[in-house]
Amino acid sequence: MAKFFKKHSLKVSDKERTQAAQLTLRESIYPLFLVTILFFLWACLGFSYGLLDTLNKHFQNTLHITRARSSGLQAAYFGAYPLASLGHANWILRHYGYKPVFIWGLCLYGIGALVAWPCILHRSFGGFCAAIFIIGNGLGSLETAANPYITVCGPPRYAEMRINLSQAFNGIGTVVAPVLGSYVFFTKTADDPAALKNVQWVYLAIAIFVFLLAGLFYFSPIPEVTDADMAFQAEETHANADNKPFYKQYRLFHAAFAQFCYTGAQIAIASYFINYVTETRPNTDSALGAKLLAGAQGAFAAGRFLGVALMKYIRPRWVFLFYLTMCIIFIAPSITQRDNTGMAMLYITLFFESICFPTIVALGMRGLGKYTKRGSGFIVGGVSGGACVPPLLGAAADLNNSTATAMSVPLAFFVAAWSYAICVNFVPAYRDPADKFATAEIGLENRNVDEESSGKGEGVFEKGEVETSENTTSSEIKDTKV
After folding, report:
1. What are 58-113's pLDDT values in tens digits?
2. Which of 343, 45, 342, 53 is nearest to 179 (CA)?
3. Burial class for 87, CB neighbours closer than 10 Å (0-12, 13-18, 19+)
4. Domains in the chain: ranges and CATH
5. For residues 265 and 387, is the Cβ–Cβ distance under 8 A?
6. What is the pLDDT of residue 408?
7. What is the rounded distance in angstroms from the CA atom of residue 318 to the CA atom of residue 111?
8. What is the dihedral of CA 132, 137, 143, 149, to 10 degrees?
9. H-type helices in 20-88, by residue range?
């Protein structure tokens, strides 16, 4: 029994090299597949967030609350992110590793879903916000581990492509949720209080499922990437910025600021999309608005897949700059346009929003070395913008009695995030680390040909295990570079 638990130990020292930073494409397939399943199950895990945009409008109707107050759902959900990414989840990540954070986040998510069940049944808006806060802590924990893990596990030059492809499956949940919201949960009138009872069983099912998923992660052999591994990557690519103190990692803090502004704008637009179309488009009720939101989220998912394809031929930083610029160009007309024209502007905006969040994560982590885990917490913590910008948009909409006019709020935050896209493309201190990682040869060749021929070297290392073969020394890795 002791041997069993030792084999599945959840603690690894960040000072140990596990060789996981040198995983080849083949070796990284299994762990990336497992974590991508986690993103895909954000169609259940991200499903609750996708459903929030529909519940936001429904709570306004059934509980007769203002648009600003209904944004408490987003405030509770995204307000939990910095508590997780800078607090408990980041502490577990730095002291134990990625796998324990996956398990911790799934357990928190399950607890929050169980709490949400009676709150929905009894129409308690405050109680449901508390449940969403717990769920936000769970998903914030998962984001704290999943996003950087996808970025660092495998050849560095494909980091942006990996995280965008994985997150593309996450977008499926945001498509499914509004569809179920309109076709399954809220099939009657928008003011029908009984409609909320349909949602309770969803949260109960999710709670059971995520607890089972936590068990799967415990028994799965996931290679652990330590700070020592990331320091090696930074040194090998000559992009190491960890020779400076953490408080001087200005690129990191700028990326976190951009994440705050961008995510806030994205969440604000999605949260009030139904309000926008019901106000500006004739003969559009909340149920139809939810269906239209599903179409917009479909455009979001499609934009992410296209972005991954473009990154194969164009540097990710250029794709990022183009996409974010298009967000600014197309959100602006939605302020003054109405009917199908205004809605089309929001559709196109969501299409170009698609790659921004994961690409900011990947670019912001470039060259952090031993600060990678700590730094990723700051970037993921920027998701808290989703708690701040929607209330501003809701207050502006209430003040002017127009959601369309209030779209000037996310426009301003897009412009603020654009400053990072400009710097990462035109400021050498930002651009050079990104480019050095984009051309790195690490992980493109097998680390140990002798092990490959002997049936070893499958890329799944036990925690704390260090390769001692001469074929894996740093100098020989440099000699084999193309």
Report:
1. 666 666 666 666 667 777 888 888 899 889 999 998 888 888 999 999 999 899 88
2. 53
3. middle
4. 20-444 (1.20.1250.20)
5. no
6. 94
7. 41
8. -150
9. 25-40, 47-62, 67-70, 72-83
Q: What is the pLDDT of residue 303?
A: 92
DSSP 171: H
Which residue has tokens 């995204």? 78
Tokens 């320091």 correspond to what residue? Answer: 231
Which residue has tokens 């090696």? 232
pLDDT of residue 286: 78
Angle, CA 264 vertex, CA 259 and CA 270 arms, to 5°:
125
Quickly list DSSP for 300-357.
HHHHHHHHHHHHTTS-HHHHHHHHHHHHHHHHTGGGT--HHHHHHHHHHHHHHHTTHH
Amino acid type, 236: E
Q: Which residues of the chain have pLDDT under 50?
A: 4-5, 44-46, 189-191, 447-482
Q: Do 143 and 85 meet the contact criterion of CB atoms below 8 Å apart?
A: yes
* Lookup: tokens for 93: 């990540």
- Residue located via tokens 């993921």: 380
CB atoms near residue 236 (< 10 Å): 20
- Residue 198's Cβ-count burial label (10 Å; 0-12, 13-18, 19+) is middle
- Structure tokens that stand for 54 in this block: 């529909």
